[in-house]
Amino acid sequence: MKAYRISDLKNFMNKLLLSDSFDYFLLEEGTIVTSNVFQIDGHVQKDFYTKEEQEDRTICPYDFSLWKDIRPFCVQIIKGKRTPLSFKFVLLLLPEHMGRILAGGDFHDQGNQVKSFTLTVRYDGSNITLVTGLSTTSFLMDKTPEQLWDSAFARFMDKKQISWEEI
């Protein structure tokens, strides 16, 4: 787990909200505080869909909503003359990208111990911090998955030209 402070807030907000930079993520949960508190539960409510739609993996491929599908709603809440008082988003890397990161470090996930690579994005009114994390099904003595995710995420930020410093 590593924490990063974003140096250029405007650039980062454009990447997060107005581009496809973070479209490789799912939204687990979000909270945006403006004149009201808006809370988003990213769990897909599969009962909303017909039985046929539920079985169609192109309609309901994940348990959580794609960030790219929820992002426009967040933009509507955040945009305006005033900046939000705060916000927090818990994002999960798409599962198909997790496998590539783990395989790149020669980590073999017997029994699917690694559930998700997480990214918490937090704005406190003046600073944006990002915290990487790992969700597992059981305690892992091996820190390789965490190190692989931290390294991959730092490369991701550099590739997307996001200015950051480790804290």
Quick synopsis:
The protein contains five helices and eight strands; from the N terminus they run βαββαβαβαββαβ. It has helices at residues 9-18, 51-55, 67-78, 95-104, 144-159; strands at 3-6, 25-33, 37-41, 65-66, 86-93, 114-123, 128-136, 164-166.
Structure, explained:
- This protein has one domain.
- Helix content is 32%, strand content 30%.
- It is built from five helices and eight strands.
- Strands 1, 2, 3, 4, 5, 6, 7 and 8 form an eight-stranded antiparallel beta sheet that branches.
- The mean pLDDT is 93.
List key phrases describing it.
32% helix; globular; single chain; alpha+beta; 8-stranded antiparallel β-sheet
Please give the number of β-strands: 8
Count of all domains = 1
- What percentage of residues falls in helices of 4 or more residues? 25-40%
Mean pLDDT: 93
Overall radius of gyration: 17 Å
Helix/strand-derived class? alpha+beta
N-to-C series of helices and strands: EHEEHEHEHEEHE
Q: Tell me the fraction of residues in β-strands, as a range.
A: 25-35%
Total of DSSP H or I helical runs spanning 4+ residues = 5
Coarse morphology: globular
End-to-end gap:
11 Å
Largest sheet: 8 strands, antiparallel
Question: What is the fold's blueprint, element by element?
Answer:
Layout: E1 3-6, H1 9-18, E2 25-33, E3 37-41, H2 51-55, E4 65-66, H3 67-78, E5 86-93, H4 95-104, E6 114-123, E7 128-136, H5 144-159, E8 164-166
Antiparallel strand pairs: 1-7, 1-8, 2-3, 2-4, 2-5, 5-6, 6-7
